[in-house]
Amino acid sequence: AQTVTQSQPEMSVQEAETVTLSCTYDTSESNYYLFWYKQPPSRQMILVIRQEAYKQQNATENRFSVNFQKAAKSFSLKISDSQLGDTAMYFCAIPSSGTYKYIFGTGTRLKVLA
Amino acid sequence: NAGVMQNPRHLVRRRGQEARLRCSPMKGHSHVYWYRQLPEEGLKFMVYLQKENIIDESGMPKERFSAEFPKEGPSILRIQQVVRGDSAAYFCASSSQRSQGTTQYFGPGTRLTVL
């Protein structure tokens, strides 16, 4: 069965600093997609970034970038120049066995400190 | 271009009552997914629907839960005879296609509290 593991339940970072959230996963698929979603206190799930496994280049979206290591099955999220509005739960997700069913990790609660 | 809409945002029910949760997908999206989030956990897949069809309900409890996505109108997740363990946030997502690479866009969720 596919699994997604986020080993950091909580993290904090000073405003304007950089923080990296880790995610490891297990899959038997050769081609797949990976997603990071953000859930702020409003509880809305917001797509942050997505990565296609067959692309060697790491995805980047403004201050957000990933460090994707396919062999290690690792998909970490780096947030640069952290802002107070980045305070949220962050979830890593992967579609199950090439389907549409997302499997989510348990999340990392990030707090950005002023 | 409105995003995924869910209502109500908060729903309180007493044990034994029925809960109806509504989801309107993004414009142009015909694929709808329901997920449940228990406190301090990630989201868990419940059911996938296309217009008028349930495609996959493998994540939905066999009893008391049902879902529909009629030709006209929103998708409905219905929970009959609610129990305290049904208290959770229920999220709806929609996509333009069914493939694994297609991004699912989530609504704001409905927080169900069972007293």
How would you describe what is shown here?
The complex is a heterodimer of chains A (114) and B (115). Chain A is mainly β and 114 residues long. In chain A, the strands form 3 sheets. In chain A, strands 2, 5, 6, 10, 11 and 12 form a 6-stranded mixed sheet that branches. Chain A has a 4-stranded antiparallel sheet with strand order 3-9-8-7, with no helix packed on it. Chain A is built from no helices and 12 strands. In chain A, a hairpin with a 4-residue loop joins β8 and β9. Chain A is 0% helix and 52% strand. Chain A is globular. With 115 residues, chain B is mostly beta strands. In chain B, 0% of the residues lie in helices and 49% in strands. In chain B, the strands form 2 sheets. In chain B, strands 2, 4, 5, 6, 9, 10 and 11 form a 7-stranded mixed sheet that branches. Chain B has a 4-stranded antiparallel sheet with strand order 1-3-8-7, with no helix packed on it. In chain B, a hairpin with a 6-residue loop joins β7 and β8. Chain B starts with a strand and ends with a strand. The model of chain B has no long low-confidence stretch (mean pLDDT 92). At the A-B interface, β5, β6, β10 and β11 of A face β4, β5, β9 and β10 of B.
